[in-house]
Write a structure and sequence with these properties.
The protein has helices at residues 2-29, 123-135, 153-156, 181-192, 223-229, 247-253, 271-287, 380-388, and strands at 68-70, 73-75, 79-89, 95-104, 107-115, 142-148, 199-204, 210-218, 236-239, 258-264, 303-311, 316-320, 327-328, 333-339, 344-349, 354-360, 364-365, 370-378. It is an alpha+beta fold. The chain folds into two domains: 68-301, Aminopeptidase (3-Layer(aba) Sandwich); 305-400, Beta Barrel (OB fold (Dihydrolipoamide Acetyltransferase, E2P)).
């Protein structure tokens, strides 16, 4: 009985244990009742939908601006950085370092490059670029501004247009790695800086004691360049195909719209011209969507001109009788050339109705010297039509020669071709 009773007890216990295990398994598979979560408990981020993912094409928020990389340096959005570009070695073997100032905006936009001082004695251009980059606020900028106030530090340190070997740097772009010093500097600058640009303005002045009314020179046969010239406000625009070796031509060949901006004369700072240059570049930046402020102009549209030079047929002392920017009439005396040996005065007379857009300072001149650059106002359509028919545009003081091989040019046979 006891044994039988013990067996019956064990049987009932096993059956009860089995029921308990089944109940536990069922409970494990059933969903748990909701429980309160402590306020400070970490529960993880919510699922990221495409509209909230900056990497998605469906993203609806503001575009995030990535850091801008140049000269092996990252510039963060909303920041300004003063970087260094190594232009090469001096005669003493020391490095020649030029500043490159980068202002990287917080909104998407183009990369605009401003270059100056390719000719070391063109001081107006240096000051215009300095003022523009100092006046830009990266925290409110769209796109990126790259400013190089002095490209030719060799010439700038000597107040000279040229490099130490008398070569003109603006005849050697895009340069080569193993050429002359000019070609090597041009190559290094083009690779390190220019190829990071979406558009470029190369600032200059007149040369050899000549002054230029603020004017944009550009190859107007190219639609992208033509559109670019419309952003400079009430500034003179001239068609100029330019010459091989110029920075703006090399940039265009690389797919970068580029123009030359001539402002005043060399060797001095001219306050009125600098203000005009600063206003024109500020207007351009607004048109490109980089800044919110639009400078006010009395005449906001660009002014297109055909142009020609009045040259002296005799040598002597030049005395001008008109001012830069003055309107002139056919037959008007622009200046006189005095032969002090034979006591002869010869008039220089305007052949057209137009405006003085460039002129030589009073000085000793030789026969054939280009003295007055006269512009005849015309329409953009007419200038573009002439450009598309093959006109090279502005004839420069030396007759507009287009060198085939800059390395073979006589070093002193270069005049104002930007």
């Amino acid at each position: 009985m006891a044994a039988a009773g013990g067996v019956r007890w064990r049987g009932r216990g096993c059956f009860g244990l089995g029921l308990a295990l089944v109940a536990l398994a069922a409970a494990a598979q059933a969903p748990l009742p909701p429980q309160a979560t402590p306020a400070d408990a970490f529960v993880g981020p919510p699922p990221l939908i495409p509209a909230g993912d900056p990497a998605s094409s469906e993203f609806v928020g503001p575009v995030l601006v990535a850091p801008f990389t140049i000269l092996d340096t990252q510039v963060l959005p909303g920041k300004r950085a003063r970087l260094e570009w190594n232009a090469g070695m001096s005669f003493s073997g020391s490095e020649v370092i030029s500043p490159v100032v980068v202002a990287h905006g917080v909104r998407p936009g183009p990369v605009l490059c401003l270059t100056a001082g390719i000719h070391g004695d063109e001081l107006n251009s240096v000051e215009i670029v300095r003022r523009i980059v100092n006046g830009v606020e990266p925290a409110d900028l769209g796109g990126t501004l790259i400013a190089v106030p002095v490209v030719n530090l060799f010439g700038f340190s000597r107040n000279s247009r040229y490099l130490p070997d008398r070569r003109d740097l603006n005849r050697y772009f895009p340069g080569t790695r193993h050429g002359s010093i000019a070609s090597r500097i041009a190559y290094n600058f083009f690779i390190e800086v220019v190829q990071r640009c979406d558009a470029l303005v190369d600032l200059h002045t007149g040369s050899f004691d000549r002054r230029n009314l603020p004017q944009v020179r550009a190859d107007l046969s190219r639609p992208e360049v033509r559109e670019f010239t419309r952003g400079f406000g009430a500034t003179t625009v001239l068609h100029s195909a330019g010459s091989r070796g110029m920075l703006r031509n090399a940039a265009i060949q690389a797919g970068i719209p580029a123009v030359t901006f001539e402002v005043g004369g060399p060797g001095e700072l001219e306050a009125e011209e600098i203000v005009h240059g600063e206003q024109a570049i500020s207007t351009l930046m607004h048109k490109l969507g980089m800044t919110r402020h639009l400078p006010a102009w009395d005449e906001p549209q660009p002014i297109f001109y055909d142009s020609s030079w009045v040259r002296s047929d005799a040598g002597g002392l030049l005395l001008g009788r008109v001012r830069l920017g003055e309107s002139v009439e056919p037959g008007q005396v622009l200046g006189i050339v005095i032969d002090p040996i034979n006591n002869i005065e010869r008039d220089l007379v305007s052949p057209v109705r137009g405006r003085v857009i460039g002129m030589a300072r009073n000085q000793v001149v030789l026969p054939g010297f280009a003295v007055f650059h006269l512009g005849e106002e015309t329409s953009e359509q007419q200038v573009v039509s002439d450009a598309q028919r093959g006109s090279r545009g502005v004839t420069d003081e030396d007759g507009g020669r287009d060198p085939v091989d800059p390395e073979s040019l006589p070093l002193d046979d270069e005049l104002d071709q930007d």
